[in-house]
Design brief:
By secondary structure, the chain is mostly helical. Helices cover about 65% and strands about 0% of the residues.
């Protein structure tokens, strides 16, 4: 699950860098407005990539560590399906 999110993040950020570099290396020679448009799109990608990298799946708990209260942790584990009810 973490590998998939990390891969998506790096793909998005790689696309961002590719857009930015190609905009000012190649596209500006033909059309400056198109290069600026590509940079605007590249500017939007990093926040989206951060949201993708931090998004949790439906099976993920949104808290990482046990609370320290054994009864509460046992209850949450039962709800998550990690333990069978007694």
């Amino acid at each position: 699950m973490y590998t998939r999110r990390r891969r998506r993040y790096f793909v998005l950020m790689g696309g961002c860098i590719a857009l930015f570099v190609s905009a000012w290396a190649f596209v500006r020679l033909w059309s400056v407005p198109a290069a600026i448009g590509m940079c605007v799109v590249a500017m939007v990608i990093p926040p989206v990539a951060a949201m993708v990298a931090n998004a949790r799946g439906p099976d993920d708990r949104w808290w990482d560590d046990p609370s320290g209260d054994p009864k509460s942790d046992e209850w949450w584990d039962e709800l998550d399906g990690k333990k069978k009810p007694k």
